[in-house]
Amino acid sequence: MSWTSLPARIDAYPTHRIGGFEVRAGQPLPFGATPVPGGVNFSVYSNNATAMTLVLFRAGADEPLAELPFDESFRIGGVYAMTVFGLDPEAIAYAYRADGPFAPAEGDRFDGRALLVDPYATLLSGRERWRCGPDRPWRSRIAPADFDWEGDRPLRIPAEDLVVYEAHVRGFTAHPSSGVGAPGTFAGLVAKIPYLVELGVNCVELMPVFEFDERDNVRADPRTGEPLANYWGYSTVGFFAPKAGYAATGRHGMQVDEFKHTVKELHRAGIEVMLDVVFNHTAEGDERGPTLSLRGLDNRTYYMLTPDGHYFNFSGTGNTLNCNHPVVRGFVLDCLRYWASEFHVDGFRFDLAAILGRATDGVPLANPPLLEALAHDPVLRDCKLVAEVWDAGGLFQVGSFPDYCRWAEWNAGYRDALRHFLKGDVGSVAELATRFVGSPDLYARRGAVASVNFVTAHDGFTLRDLVSYNEKHNDANGEDGRDGENHNISWNCGHEGPVDGGPVARLRDRQVRNALLILLTSHGIPMLLAGDEAGRQHRDAVAADPAHQPRHPDAAGRRRSRPDPARQQQRLLPRRRAVLVRLDAGRAQRRAGPVHPAPDRLPPRAPVPAAAPPAHRAHPGPVPGRQLARRARVDAGLVAAQPRVRRDAVRARPGRRRRLRLRGRQRALGAARAAVARAAAGADLAPVRRHRRRAGRGQPRARHRTTPAPAGLGPAGPAVVRGAARPAGPGRGATARGVIHR
């Protein structure tokens, strides 16, 4: 009997009929809704629920199509699993009802009336267009899996070559000045890829793109009364679903394909994609928040709770995910594996990552299971992992984060040191020098690539704000200035707020260029905030209407009368690789030992090619600010190193030093010519007058003499001019080119 004549598998047949649909016990793994031959398999976890119901909808409908309670035989441990036959995965939506006790003091908050989002849903409906249409309840859907990647693979750019550009998908192109056809969307980001290439960045870090509710903001603009948006998106509703409001095709349910196309086009341009992910809290908030998903499914499992049933608030948003619970840890791993495999994402930046190292009671762990699992996960092996190593509960782990030799960190120490230096604060030079060379006091074991250097990020001031304000002015978000960081280490250059031209504007432009120069030449991974290259400010950025968004940095009408930081950035980035290569070579040379041997252990002197430049040995200790800039330029190959010379030459004027060198070379050349002439004439080859010669700075003093021609050449044979260097005694200079005695 051939394989084609075998009967269909027996488990493809239903065993029950519930709510008008033929069903059978499903597969508990994977979680979520998975198309199977003949239907869809639904699997959901709840350890403490007493009953579970699957609610089916036609796509776009508000009223349920059917409600299918899970048979008790369909429950395996704490997992409810059921296969429903006859369903078209692209034509349905679904939700769950979970029944159980409502006992907040014990941690249970079940509500059998609430329709709950599937935590593993790959598509969500209800917010298909950004702040358009009526509020509709969230519905889970199944994303199609038919995208053609055309051979795309993650780029795997080495960490030492990264230049990260942090951007908000909507804010990057929402303003009409962006000139794109679909502003504020993934498609708009694709249209601006040539600008990113021109700018020179090779990694885009996107602020949250998981599904969230942009209408989840009760405040209004105090100036206009317009409702404000939850603009940044750090309150996640669907962890496996891309934000529909960020897709030009979101109203057609095609946001998954649009985001995949965005990643593919960025990869084609040589740009990696890193996602800002939020696993420290959810959109459900504290006891006063809505019941959307995890709270209604198993509140006690998914959230950190106090002994009396309240929520720990290490995130500052009302709740904290219980990340090191085994079930929640598996949920986080499944989510990241999905984005890495299905969307070809190259890395993740973890918001308030210090929370991921807390135990179920909030105590920091020495060996957090989740962080270790992420570091060693086989699917995530090639993904960059970047941590924001603090949280709202006061845990600050810069340099002490459990890294497992895999994690990089947002280096807040670098940010503060650079800001103090730009202000000119006393004592800031030595601190910046340490941060400039990769913060070896923090990352000596892991290397400088563990440090993500930045001067501004989405939190707080932009780079233009940093040089324009001494104090924050959060007047447009309805919180009366209570939000945000008060210690911004900023200086307004003599005037608070915007100015039009004049010395203050020129000073601010110079400060911006100084910040970019130091950032892009520092050892580590530089991160730029989108718009800083064009002077973007946060004012009005909290308003979500596209007309109120800051102008796009690539706008055609951008002012060009002042020096342009973006152009400076484009000039600096190609040099960054050469700078870091030279810094690495210098560090390796210093670790290998002294540049020159001790005077009593000098090797035999050998001739060195005249073109070899003098070697440079960096100062081993803290470097003052003026020397810091000089040594950075030397390591970049922009200027030559200057070894020490004799005291009389140091004291002489530059012009006199040049004349002395020229005179010595002329004398040496004359002596050589005279020796050759005497040999050609057959004259007595007695030693000629000695001449002192300096072939170049750092060269040995030599005694020149002529020697008889070798036997067989006769009196007309050529003379050989040799330079016999005198032994180096105490206090002498170098004995060969490139060996410098300091």
UniProtKB/TrEMBL annotation:
<feature type="compositionally biased region" description="Basic residues">
    <location>
        <begin position="689"/>
        <end position="706"/>
    </location>
</feature>
<feature type="domain" description="Glycosyl hydrolase family 13 catalytic">
    <location>
        <begin position="166"/>
        <end position="567"/>
    </location>
</feature>
<dbReference type="GO" id="GO:0004553">
    <property type="term" value="F:hydrolase activity, hydrolyzing O-glycosyl compounds"/>
</dbReference>
<dbReference type="Pfam" id="PF00128">
    <property type="entry name" value="Alpha-amylase"/>
</dbReference>
<feature type="region of interest" description="Disordered">
    <location>
        <begin position="689"/>
        <end position="717"/>
    </location>
</feature>
<dbReference type="GO" id="GO:0005975">
    <property type="term" value="P:carbohydrate metabolic process"/>
</dbReference>
<dbReference type="InterPro" id="IPR004193">
    <property type="entry name" value="Glyco_hydro_13_N"/>
</dbReference>
<dbReference type="Pfam" id="PF02922">
    <property type="entry name" value="CBM_48"/>
</dbReference>
<dbReference type="InterPro" id="IPR013783">
    <property type="entry name" value="Ig-like_fold"/>
</dbReference>
<dbReference type="InterPro" id="IPR014756">
    <property type="entry name" value="Ig_E-set"/>
</dbReference>
<comment type="similarity">
    <text>Belongs to the glycosyl hydrolase 13 family.</text>
</comment>
<protein>
    <submittedName>
        <fullName>Glycogen debranching protein GlgX</fullName>
    </submittedName>
</protein>
<feature type="compositionally biased region" description="Low complexity">
    <location>
        <begin position="707"/>
        <end position="717"/>
    </location>
</feature>
<feature type="compositionally biased region" description="Basic and acidic residues">
    <location>
        <begin position="551"/>
        <end position="565"/>
    </location>
</feature>
<dbReference type="InterPro" id="IPR017853">
    <property type="entry name" value="GH"/>
</dbReference>
<feature type="region of interest" description="Disordered">
    <location>
        <begin position="537"/>
        <end position="626"/>
    </location>
</feature>
<dbReference type="InterPro" id="IPR006047">
    <property type="entry name" value="GH13_cat_dom"/>
</dbReference>
